[in-house]
Design a protein that fits this description.
heterodimer; A: two-stranded antiparallel sheet; 12 helices; elongated; B: mainly alpha
């Protein structure tokens, strides 16, 4: 997972003749050609566009995520959608919710906003905290390391899911996505920090850091110019794998009723509201479930490929 | 060895103290008044005050914290004089909703959670490790690629979604299984199995995917080691080499992971138990959260944290037994 120090001291590690790209660029070129990576990127691009342009797209499709369409459901069957496959029709592209007839396509589009927003923000904060804490603990050692390591032990021993649910249910309503991001980040940064700490410890004793140290560099240049750039591969991989993890956890928390609260849509919460209908209207849980799975899967495939490149490709 | 153990237990106790402190603090600061919710609809301010005094909720935070700790080690009394209720050690309080002892509540639900955890662990170890070993041996083949793609998908599937799909297919469409209702094994082995097979599959899919990936990576690393080359050079057959020399070093990291994953499940497979409506510890916590029953949430959080902390110590000790290299380097 460690990028070799050659990326730092390019003047010593001459690129092979005819190959003038840095290892990072070469690695990138290698994975970008794999079909699984292309498909994943294409799917994620679609979801990101859907999320960004949700208001525009839903104006095009004709239904917003909150309007009830009583004409699309059948009151005599207890509110099941009239059209087959959960009410899929030219009017409602992915069908409607049973009973109230809200448009599933519109709710998926707006739900994608929540999933991506929470996933990306939580990843950013987790990475920031994890990298700073891991660098501090690994580089300075001693009492700094002891304090940070104990804090990490404590947070990792916590039954995070139960506790997240308890905190989120106790907290006032307020801004749910922001609360989710904070709670998710608090319990997740130690996993990142532990890896960063271990790698920083081994990097801090390497020759090129020693050389910089003996030539009189202070701790700031050592950390930011020598150690941090060599951690970039690890950070990219961990961030790519953290996003799907957070998206899944957010959906899980919303599924349990403590995440995004109705009527605002979120994929996990859509699956939760489909539970009473799972035997009579399976499309209602299948559509958000499959989209959630594909999004998480696509991110995981990307992360997995990046990991392979960074662990093997630089040697 | 003794000093190592003492050190580990010392650290474990400190971690547990922090967990108690932090959990209590969150409830102390964030939660709405529990006395009001115990009291219910027909309530007078006097009555709320009585409950608060009896529960010790009128005390300052640190007094409550130490009263709780005392309850764990020596027991505690709720209320004063003749109406006092004694709660023997280890006491982690009474449910606000039912008045039942929290520890008793957890013990009552332990069999369901244990059944789910043990069955799932057996299933995921067998399938995950086997798939990982075969993938490593047949590295680069279609079997390997297929198994690893499947494992990657298995990691990405949300377990409540898998639970719904399984229930829809096996119960509603194919009618192979009845709706899950928790019955003890002694009552009806057939129905017991039919109830738990779906939760086992849901949990095993997720964990087996992770274990297969890890086993494969470890196995490939091990097969490149010098002692494996020596074994091959000695003329041993591939089968015995794999089993006697290859498997043991590849499986030690799996033991570490298994210990912690299993311990986590003992704190309740919250989502799985909730979706299938099985009355385990996870469902206990989930139900308590929805009615803000703080002593129960506290109790489950503590038991779950305790299981993870203890599992970490056991796993470290096991690791020393299983991997000679660790033993040499750390003594």
């Amino acid at each position: 997972m460690t990028a070799s120090p050659n990326t730092q001291v390019g003047e010593f590690g001459q690129p092979a003749p005819g190959e003038s790209f840095s290892p990072g660029v070469r690695a990138f070129r290698k994975i970008i050609r794999k079909p699984s990576v292309i498909l994943s990127l294409a799917f994620l691009a679609l979801i990101v566009l859907l999320a960004i342009f949700a208001p525009l797209v839903t104006r095009l499709s004709g239904w917003d995520p909150f309007t009830y369409d009583e004409a699309a459901v059948d009151p005599s069957s207890g509110g099941l959608p009239l059209a087959p496959l959960g009410g899929i029709s030219a009017e409602h592209w992915l069908g409607v919710e049973p009973q109230n007839g809200r448009d599933i396509f519109a709710r998926i589009a707006y739900g994608a906003r929540v999933s991506l927003l929470v996933g990306i923000c939580a990843t950013a904060i987790t990475m920031l905290l994890g990298v700073v804490m891991g660098l501090l603990a690994g580089f300075f050692g001693g009492i700094v390391d002891a304090v940070i390591s104990r804090l990490m032990d404590f947070l990792m021993a916590f039954p995070a899911l139960i506790f997240m649910i308890a905190i989120l249910s106790a907290l006032p309503q307020g801004n749910r996505p922001a609360l989710l991001v904070i709670v998710l980040s608090i319990f997740s940064w130690p996993a990142t920090a532990r890896v960063i700490r271990a790698q920083t410890m081994s990097l801090a004793n390497r020759e090129f850091v020693e050389a910089a140290r003996t030539s009189g560099a202070g701790w700031a240049p050592l950390v930011f110019r020598e150690v941090l750039p060599n951690l970039s591969g690890t950070i990219i991989v961990m961030a790519t794998l953290a996003i799907p993890n957070f998206i899944a956890t957010e959906a899980g928390l919303s599924f349990l009723g403590v995440g995004i609260t109705p009527p605002n849509p979120s994929w996990g919460q859509m699956i939760a509201s489909a539970v009473p209908w799972y035997s009579s209207d399976p499309m209602f849980f299948a559509i958000p479930g499959i989209l959630l799975f594909l999004t998480v899967f696509a991110f995981t495939v990307l992360g997995d490929n990046l990991q392979k490149i960074f662990s093997g490709g630089f040697e | 060895m003794i000093s190592y153990l003492l050190k580990r237990f010392g650290a474990a106790i400190i971690i547990m103290l922090f967990v108690v402190f932090f959990t209590l603090l969150v409830f102390f600061k964030l939660s709405p008044d529990p006395a009001a919710s115990i009291c219910g609809q027909t309530c007078t301010p006097d009555r709320i005050e009585t409950i608060r005094t009896q529960m010790g909720l009128d005390q300052p935070f640190f007094a409550q914290f130490f009263a709780f700790l005392a309850g764990i080690f020596v027991g505690r009394d709720y209320g004063e004089g003749a109406s006092a209720i004694h709660c023997g050690a280890p006491c982690i309080g009474y449910s606000f909703q039912t008045g039942q002892s929290v520890l008793q509540g957890i013990m009552d639900r332990m069999p369901v959670t244990l059944t789910i955890a043990i069955g799932a662990a057996v299933l995921w170890l067998l399938t995950g490790v086997a798939a990982g070993v075969i993938s490593a041996v047949k590295e680069g083949t279609w079997w390997d690629r297929g198994a690893m793609a499947f494992a990657l998908a298995g990691i990405s599937l949300p377990n409540y979604f898998v639970a719904l799909v399984l229930q829809y297919l096996l119960v509603v469409q194919l009618e192979w299984l009845p709706f899950p209702t928790a019955v003890p094994f002694s009552e009806s082995p057939g129905q017991w199995f039919a109830t738990y097979i779906m939760p086992w599959m849901v949990l095993a899919l997720m964990y087996a995917s992770m274990y297969a990936r890890l086993t494969r990576t470890n196995m490939i690393d091990t097969m490149g080691e010098n002692f494996m080359r020596t074994a091959r050079a000695k003329g041993l057959k591939p089968g015995p080499i794999l089993i006697r020399h290859g498997l043991r070093p590849s499986l030690t990291p799996i033991v570490t992971l298994l210990g912690v994953d299993f311990a986590t499940l003992l704190g309740g497979a919250l989502i799985t138990e909730t979706v299938f409506g099985l009355p385990g510890i996870g469902k206990f916590a989930y139900d308590a959260i929805s009615v803000n029953d703080q002593p129960v949430i506290m109790g489950v959080t503590l038991v779950a944290a305790f299981a993870v902390v203890i599992a970490n110590i056991i796993v470290d000790l096991l690791y020393r037994v299983l991997d000679p290299r660790v033993r040499v380097s750390s003594t």
